[in-house]
Design brief:
By secondary structure, this protein is an alpha+beta fold. It folds into three domains: 180 residues, Immunoglobulin-like; 96 residues, no CATH class; 125 residues, no CATH class. The chain has ten helices and 23 strands. The strands form seven sheets. Strands 1, 2, 4, 5, 9 and 12 form a six-stranded mixed β-sheet that branches. A hairpin with a 5-residue loop joins strand 16 and strand 17. The longest helix has 29 residues. It starts with a helix and ends with a strand.
């Protein structure tokens, strides 16, 4: 009997190694990402200060979330917990254990760990667990207990029930700790923690700003304009209800817009609001204002793209003062008749030809003059009579044609060399429109 026991004792390490190798082979076949089983569990002494095994979140989390909203990673996907091991050269590699690990999700104070250190004791961790306020529901709702198998555990639908404003750091962390793992409880597995983040009440989500804003967004989606606040109310009373309305008036008459907002909006606040509005997605719509003598093409915020006057094409660049003044007048007329303008989308060349073809025929018939009159109008003075105004036709002026795949670049309301509507009071400084 003694000999048999000695034989079994001698065979035990060999059998354990064979079983371990076979299990590793099976895991590698099931998980191509090559998660390795930790080889150190059978010999590692318990050490609460330095653990080679750690739980870890697979992705970062957003820096702000809301009560009642599922906690997701920064890419908007459900979070996973993985088991990793720190090697001797401080590399972090995925690993797994042969048995399931029972986990619990908890909330930590955002100021843990002190000085952002990478290691802590179980006692230090447990002291920073945050519980619900008196009379409140549990701070987290959902499935708080998980089981990790093969080195991974999926976090289900969990959400906060209270904001983080009532603790000193004003931030929370979500953390996961081990509550049971097989028979070898002497092996410490360090807890996983997320980045510190702010939790706001869900009602705040309904009032949050948009980045970037959309043209049809309500005004209060812009920074420094609160929903139903003074600025919001004043602009609404003047018919300025959307981001598009705001930007159109900023282009046409900044002085009027600033007067509507009042002295309560400082220059600094104005710059913040306007800079935010300027990040708006412009889209590809073009608005057309035309009469028999002209066609004006505007972008969605009433900024000139180009003009066709009596068959002559002009862009917003290179205009002399006479031309600029006349176009200013037409653009302002278009602004007052915005709801009557024609709207086109997409490729412009073909649409422009269709829109202007008939007008040009009528225009040519209505403006028939003798050869001598044409000479008098164009040659001596180098000016043309158009709609009762004189236009200077520069010899070196080159018109600008549209590209087939036209799209707007919107880094600012004005670009170098582009016209600014007279009286608008806008100046482009470092890409930010400033009030003069």
């Amino acid at each position: 009997m003694q000999n048999m026991q000695n034989l079994l004792a001698a065979l035990e390490p060999f059998l354990a190694r064979v079983v371990s190798e076979e299990v590793d082979k099976a895991i590698r076949k099931s998980f191509p990402c090559s998660i390795n089983r930790s080889p150190s569990l059978s010999i590692q002494a318990p050490n609460d200060h330095q653990s080679t095994l750690q739980l870890s979140f697979n992705k970062r989390v957003p820096l702000k979330t809301f009560t009642g909203s599922r906690i997701l990673d920064i890419e908007g996907n459900p979070m996973n917990i993985i088991l990793v091991e720190k090697t001797n050269n401080n590399q972090i590699v995925p690993t797994s254990l042969l048995y399931p690990i029972k986990l619990e999700i908890v909330v930590l104070d955002g100021d843990f760990p002190l000085h952002e250190k990478e290691n802590w004791t179980s006692e230090e961790f447990n002291k920073k667990i945050v519980k619900e306020r008196s009379g409140k529901r549990p701070l987290l709702s959902g499935e708080m207990n998980l089981t990790m198998r093969d080195g991974i555990a999926a976090i289900g639908d969990i959400e906060f029930t209270d904001n983080s404003s009532w603790i000193r750091s004003r931030k929370f962390r979500v953390a996961v700790k081990v509550i049971h793992h097989g028979n070898n409880q002497s092996v410490r597995i360090q807890e996983a923690i997320t980045e510190a983040f702010v939790v706001k009440d869900h009602r705040g989500e309904l009032y949050k700003k948009h980045y970037p804003p959309m043209l049809d967004d309500d005004l209060w989606r812009l920074e420094k304009i609160g929903k139903d606040g003074v600025f919001h109310t004043r602009m609404n009373s003047e018919g300025i209800k959307t981001v598009q309305d705001f930007l159109k008036l900023a282009v046409i008459d900044t002085h009027k817009l600033r007067k509507i907002l009042g002295i309560g909006m400082s220059d600094k606040m104005w710059e913040v609001t306007l800079k935010h509005a300027m990040t708006c997605e412009m889209g590809s719509k073009v608005y057309i204002y035309h009469e028999p003598q002209f066609v004006i093409f505007l972008n969605p915020i009433c900024k000139l793209i180009k003009a066709i006057i009596n068959g002559h094409e002009f862009s917003s660049r290179g205009l002399n003062q006479i031309n600029k003044s006349y176009i200013d007048k037409l653009v302002k007329e278009a602004y007052t008749k915005w709801d009557e303008l024609e709207e086109i989308d997409g490729v412009l060349n073909h649409n422009i030809a269709l829109l202007t073809q008939g007008d040009q025929i009528v225009n040519q018939a209505s403006l028939v003059t003798t050869h001598d009159q044409n000479i008098a109008s164009y040659v001596p003075s180098n000016k043309a009579q158009m709609g009762g105004s004189e236009w200077s036709l520069s010899q070196g002026f080159a018109t600008t044609s549209f590209e087939n795949d036209f799209s707007y670049g919107f880094s600012g309301l004005q670009s170098d060399g582009e016209m600014t509507p007279s009286g608008s009071g806008l100046s482009d400084v470092d890409g930010v429109m400033r009030h003069l």
